């Protein structure tokens, strides 16, 4: 395992340098990595040599590529069943070897470059680059290596890595957890599995929620976004991306139809789009000029679609579109009778205006319909909106239920519905005066005879009849001084106040340490106490182990802290409570063990 | 009034009602002036004194050096000190008796030093020591009212318990009335109640007491307690809930000193002083059957009454219960009625 440790040390150092700062974390990161990768144990190798020898490998070699350079050194690349390795020319050992499970991804240099390279990026962030320098077959070599890796890497992407990342993420996000981890696992008080045992179950549920993705809709301005750029010499250049093309097809199925018909049989894609943009179909004034244009049919289809949409009307019976018409009072109030739209001699301008408005409406309706169509047009028989896109569908069947639902929604008010609460039982109190009696014991009152009462009253009456306020003789100095003594710190009445607040006794760093101790102790005690009642042999072992963990914690953490505090801040017993808690745990275990012994006997 | 001292002659220009009207009016004018001059918030202290004659009578026989007179003196000193602190401090004194609760100060029935005011009296109260007139008036009023309360004490019913809950309720009403009055004038008011308690708690006033405490808490009114004789659980709870101070004093003759030291500072000043720490309050409930204070008990889930022992039928609401008996009692299974 010597080589592993060395690699891991190097890797962890690199990672630590980029991520965290101090020396203690290096140690725990090392341990963490060892824990995780311990499951991928490689057969033990000869400890004497610093790197693996080729002869001692018992692994199957899948691909050997000669003349591969790494770090300006010639060598050979070996792809094996579980790892990829490279050894220098003429030498007998691998200087670079990576397990497939360590590799996060591979990268290749772009096609046009002179150097043909393959880069492996590991999970730790480190990367190794291999330069294929075989003159004749460099490209094929590289492709072969890439393809093989592509097949092999997914197999080795173990879940352990994902968990490792998850754990790292959790530790980085929560500093308290991080501190707890440092205190407990790094100092070997408890093992990492126990630490993670309770925490990992909460993280699995979160991953399933992020799998649902939302479909991307169509931008309403997608046609306008294709801004033509002047080509220099009286030409226009349109940039069409696949996204725009997809938007066009989703919004205008007619165009998609035409595309399917003509490309690639009659026209190339470029020509098709050129024609599209040239056609009047695309442009503002859609006055159909001739039948030569392949898109003139589209225009006619659109007209038909628009008409059918208008005929269908709105599904919601409560929406009255007709009320949105211009309502005028009389002529002269912004309304002139001469310009009526039903005039057959419409001017050209009015015609083009109405044409534009028609096109806008159609365009918007198509976009809305495309958004809800979601690409599977033939299966969309049942959706309500599929019939609003103007294409002929049998939508009349579905109108009445929808109308009913809308009407029902409008007349249903929650408050007006009858309240059907659960049946309750009436409360039947027989002696309700019991509640009015305070927490004062019944027989505590002193018994006074009626004679006493009469005596007291007469006495008081007599006294008060002769009462004159004498405010100058209210107090004697002896009484006052004893009262002041009782009220001063340390006096009779101030006894309970000597338990000072901890923030007055020790500085904040010590308080912080105490807080960490409490968190760590709490974690350990939680593990301990959840073992009770001890039902299984696993719990029996665990409870004994926890006791030893607690003792270890007490020895390594609690005692030194206590001594330090007592040395510096005399008579401050701030760890008393912690000791008490630990002692309770020990007592409980002792009691349980004696009971078990008794039962056995 | 001492007969040997010469009586001062003053022009008589006030009737009894006019005097107290003037008192109140002057207070209001003060307030208006304050509203214009400075916006200090008012600080109202209501002292509720337990003057149970039975207890005080017995006390007079037990300990003649500390009697009701001494206690009244101490309370007057406290009241004067409070009013002397700033001009925006106000005082009210309520006596808590077993027959009623009575406002000692301010009072509408002030009759002057010589008995009934019959309109022919031509002298104003005479204090003779050049004291701030407000203080001397207050003292005289308190003394007079106390004498009247004590002289009209009669033992009618059986109850010898001090009506503390009622007095606290009256105090709260007084405070709230003042708050409403001053709130409309734009003045803020902070208030607290100081209870000087002698006799024991009355269990029958528990419900009212708790209501008063929670009402005070809602209105941010402190309830302080100075207890002379035996510890009172209800007052401990009151102080804990409202944030006041509870103190049982060891020496009664030094009452004035304790009052001035502990209860004179108001809420803002208290954190800066070293005052007696809060007592540990016993919040245990009492079981409905024996009235013992218990920590662990059985609660009926229907009527929430507390019992110290399990019984299959709740005696308050007559619901029948089944309970899982522990394993070892399997042989003695009792037949229990099914719950409704």
From TrEMBL, chain A:
<dbReference type="InterPro" id="IPR011993">
    <property type="entry name" value="PH-like_dom_sf"/>
</dbReference>
<dbReference type="InterPro" id="IPR027079">
    <property type="entry name" value="Tfb1/GTF2H1"/>
</dbReference>
<dbReference type="Pfam" id="PF03909">
    <property type="entry name" value="BSD"/>
</dbReference>
<dbReference type="InterPro" id="IPR005607">
    <property type="entry name" value="BSD_dom"/>
</dbReference>
<dbReference type="InterPro" id="IPR013876">
    <property type="entry name" value="TFIIH_BTF_p62_N"/>
</dbReference>
<dbReference type="GO" id="GO:0000439">
    <property type="term" value="C:transcription factor TFIIH core complex"/>
</dbReference>
<feature type="compositionally biased region" description="Polar residues">
    <location>
        <begin position="380"/>
        <end position="390"/>
    </location>
</feature>
<protein>
    <submittedName>
        <fullName>General transcription factor IIH, polypeptide 1</fullName>
    </submittedName>
</protein>
<keyword id="KW-0805">Transcription regulation</keyword>
<feature type="domain" description="BSD">
    <location>
        <begin position="152"/>
        <end position="207"/>
    </location>
</feature>
<dbReference type="Pfam" id="PF08567">
    <property type="entry name" value="PH_TFIIH"/>
</dbReference>
<feature type="domain" description="BSD">
    <location>
        <begin position="232"/>
        <end position="284"/>
    </location>
</feature>
<keyword id="KW-0677">Repeat</keyword>
<feature type="region of interest" description="Disordered">
    <location>
        <begin position="371"/>
        <end position="401"/>
    </location>
</feature>
<dbReference type="GO" id="GO:0006289">
    <property type="term" value="P:nucleotide-excision repair"/>
</dbReference>
<dbReference type="GO" id="GO:0006351">
    <property type="term" value="P:DNA-templated transcription"/>
</dbReference>
<comment type="similarity">
    <text>Belongs to the TFB1 family.</text>
</comment>
<keyword id="KW-0804">Transcription</keyword>
<keyword id="KW-0539">Nucleus</keyword>
<dbReference type="InterPro" id="IPR035925">
    <property type="entry name" value="BSD_dom_sf"/>
</dbReference>
Automatic annotation (TrEMBL), chain B:
<dbReference type="GO" id="GO:0008270">
    <property type="term" value="F:zinc ion binding"/>
</dbReference>
<comment type="function">
    <text>Component of the general transcription and DNA repair factor IIH (TFIIH) core complex, which is involved in general and transcription-coupled nucleotide excision repair (NER) of damaged DNA and, when complexed to CAK, in RNA transcription by RNA polymerase II. In NER, TFIIH acts by opening DNA around the lesion to allow the excision of the damaged oligonucleotide and its replacement by a new DNA fragment. In transcription, TFIIH has an essential role in transcription initiation.</text>
</comment>
<keyword id="KW-0804">Transcription</keyword>
<keyword id="KW-0862">Zinc</keyword>
<dbReference type="InterPro" id="IPR036465">
    <property type="entry name" value="vWFA_dom_sf"/>
</dbReference>
<keyword id="KW-0805">Transcription regulation</keyword>
<dbReference type="InterPro" id="IPR004600">
    <property type="entry name" value="TFIIH_Tfb4/GTF2H3"/>
</dbReference>
<keyword id="KW-0539">Nucleus</keyword>
<keyword id="KW-0234">DNA repair</keyword>
<dbReference type="GO" id="GO:0000439">
    <property type="term" value="C:transcription factor TFIIH core complex"/>
</dbReference>
<dbReference type="GO" id="GO:0006355">
    <property type="term" value="P:regulation of DNA-templated transcription"/>
</dbReference>
<comment type="similarity">
    <text>Belongs to the TFB4 family.</text>
</comment>
<dbReference type="GO" id="GO:0005675">
    <property type="term" value="C:transcription factor TFIIH holo complex"/>
</dbReference>
<comment type="subunit">
    <text>Part of a TFIID-containing RNA polymerase II pre-initiation complex that is composed of TBP and at least GTF2A1, GTF2A2, GTF2E1, GTF2E2, GTF2F1, GTF2H2, GTF2H3, GTF2H4, GTF2H5, GTF2B, TCEA1, ERCC2, ERCC3, TAF1, TAF2, TAF3, TAF4, TAF5, TAF6, TAF7, TAF8, TAF9, TAF10, TAF11, TAF12 and TAF13. Component of the 7-subunit TFIIH core complex composed of XPB/ERCC3, XPD/ERCC2, GTF2H1, GTF2H2, GTF2H3, GTF2H4 and GTF2H5, which is active in NER.</text>
</comment>
<keyword id="KW-0863">Zinc-finger</keyword>
<keyword id="KW-0227">DNA damage</keyword>
<protein>
    <recommendedName>
        <fullName>General transcription factor IIH subunit 3</fullName>
    </recommendedName>
</protein>
<dbReference type="GO" id="GO:0006289">
    <property type="term" value="P:nucleotide-excision repair"/>
</dbReference>
<dbReference type="Pfam" id="PF03850">
    <property type="entry name" value="Tfb4"/>
</dbReference>
<keyword id="KW-0479">Metal-binding</keyword>
């Amino acid at each position: 395992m010597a080589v592993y440790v060395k690699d891991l040390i190097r890797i962890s150092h690199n990672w630590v340098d980029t991520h965290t700062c101090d020396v203690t974390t290096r140690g725990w990161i090392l341990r963490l990595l060892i824990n995780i990768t311990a499951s991928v144990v490689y057969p033990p190798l000869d400890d004497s040599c610093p790197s693996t020898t080729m002869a001692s490998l018992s692994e199957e070699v899948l691909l050997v590529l000669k003349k591969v350079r790494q770090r300006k050194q010639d060598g050979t690349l070996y792809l094996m069943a579980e790892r990829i390795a490279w050894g220098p020319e003429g030498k007998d050992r691998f200087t670079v070897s990576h397990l497939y499970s360590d590799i996060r991804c591979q990268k290749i240099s772009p096609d046009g470059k002179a150097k043909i390279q393959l880069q492996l990026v590991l999970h730790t962030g480190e990367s190794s680059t291999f330069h294929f320098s075989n003159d004749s077959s460099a490209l094929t070599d590289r492709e072969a290596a890439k393809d093989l890796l592509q097949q092999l890497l997914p197999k080795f992407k173990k879940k352990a890595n994902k968990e490792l990342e998850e754990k790292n993420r959790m530790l980085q996000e929560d500093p308290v957890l991080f501190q707890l981890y440092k205190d407990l696992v790094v100092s070997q008080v408890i093992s990492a599995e126990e630490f993670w045992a309770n925490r990992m179950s909460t993280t699995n549920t979160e991953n399933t929620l992020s799998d649902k993705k939302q479909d991307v809709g169509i931008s309403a301005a997608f046609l306008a976004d294709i801004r033509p750029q002047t080509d220099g010499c009286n030409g226009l250049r349109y940039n069409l991306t696949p996204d725009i093309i997809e938007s066009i097809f989703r919004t205008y199925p007619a165009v998609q139809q035409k595309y399917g018909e003509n490309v690639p049989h009659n026209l190339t894609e470029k020509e098709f789009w050129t024609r599209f943009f040239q056609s009047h179909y695309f442009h503002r004034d859609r006055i159909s000029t001739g039948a030569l244009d392949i898109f003139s049919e589209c225009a006619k289809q659109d007209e038909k679609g628009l008409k059918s949409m208008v005929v269908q009307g709105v599904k919601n019976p409560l929406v009255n579109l007709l009320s949105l018409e211009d309502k005028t009072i009389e002529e002269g109030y912004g309304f002139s009778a001469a310009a009526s739209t039903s005039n057959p001699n419409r001017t050209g301008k009015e015609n083009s205006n109405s044409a534009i408005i028609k096109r806008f409406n159609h365009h918007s309706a198509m976009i809305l319909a495309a958004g809800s169509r979601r690409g599977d047009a033939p299966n969309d028989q049942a959706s309500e909106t599929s019939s609003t896109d103007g294409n002929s569908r049998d939508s009349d069947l579905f109108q009445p239920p929808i109308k009913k639902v809308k009407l029902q929604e409008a007349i249903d008010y929650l408050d007006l519905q009858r309240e059907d609460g659960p049946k309750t039982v009436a409360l039947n109190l027989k002696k309700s005066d019991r509640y009015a009696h305070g927490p004062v014991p019944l027989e505590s009152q002193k018994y006074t005879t009626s004679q006493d009462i009469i005596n007291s009253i007469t006495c008081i009456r007599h006294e008060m009849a002769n009462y004159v306020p004498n405010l100058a003789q209210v107090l004697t100095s002896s009484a006052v001084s004893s009262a002041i003594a009782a009220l001063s710190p340390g006096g009779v009445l101030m006894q309970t106040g000597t338990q000072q607040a901890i923030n007055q006794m020790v500085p904040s760093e010590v308080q912080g340490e105490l807080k960490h101790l409490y968190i760590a102790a709490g974690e350990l005690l939680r593990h301990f106490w959840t073992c009770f009642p001890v039902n299984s042999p696993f719990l029996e072992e665990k409870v004994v182990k926890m006791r030893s963990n607690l003792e270890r914690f007490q020895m390594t953490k609690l005692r030194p802290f206590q001594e330090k505090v007592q040395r510096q801040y005399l008579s401050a017993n701030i760890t008393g409570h912690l000791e008490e808690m630990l002692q309770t745990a020990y007592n409980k275990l002792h009691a349980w063990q004696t009971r078990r012994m008794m039962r056995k006997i | 009034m001492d007969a040997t001292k010469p009586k001062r002659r003053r022009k008589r220009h006030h009737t009894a009602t006019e005097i107290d009207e003037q008192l109140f009016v002057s207070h209001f004018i003060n307030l208006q002036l304050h509203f214009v001059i400075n916006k200090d918030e008012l600080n109202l202290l209501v002292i509720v004194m337990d003057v149970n004659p039975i207890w005080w009578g017995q006390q007079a026989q037990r300990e003649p050096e500390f009697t009701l007179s001494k206690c009244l003196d101490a309370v007057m000193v406290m009241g004067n000190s409070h009013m002397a602190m700033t001009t925006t401090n106000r005082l009210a004194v309520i006596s808590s008796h077993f027959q009623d609760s009575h406002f000692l100060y301010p009072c509408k029935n002030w009759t002057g030093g010589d008995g009934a005011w019959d309109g022919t009296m031509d002298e104003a109260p005479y204090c003779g020591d050049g004291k701030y007139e407000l203080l001397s008036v207050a003292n005289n009023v308190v003394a007079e009212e106390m004498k009247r309360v004590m002289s009209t004490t009669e033992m009618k019913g059986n109850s010898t318990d001090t009506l503390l809950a009622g007095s606290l309720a009256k105090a709260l009403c007084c405070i709230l009335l003042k708050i409403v009055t001053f709130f409309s004038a734009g003045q803020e008011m902070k208030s607290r109640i100081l209870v000087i308690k002698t006799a024991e708690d009355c269990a029958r006033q528990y419900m009212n007491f708790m209501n008063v405490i929670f009402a005070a808490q809602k209105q941010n009114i402190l309830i302080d307690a100075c207890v002379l004789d035996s510890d009172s659980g209800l007052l401990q709870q009151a102080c804990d809930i409202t944030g006041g101070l509870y103190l049982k004093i060891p020496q009664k003759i030094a009452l004035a000193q304790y009052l001035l030291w502990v209860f004179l500072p108001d809420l803002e000043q208290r954190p800066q002083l070293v005052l007696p720490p809060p007592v540990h309050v016993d919040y245990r409930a009492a079981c409905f059957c024996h009235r013992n204070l218990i920590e662990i008990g059985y609660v009926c889930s229907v009527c929430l009454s507390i019992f110290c022992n399990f019984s299959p039928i709740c005696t308050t609401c007559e619901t029948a219960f089944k309970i899982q008996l522990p394993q070892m009692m399997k042989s003695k299974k009792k037949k229990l009625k099914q719950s409704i």
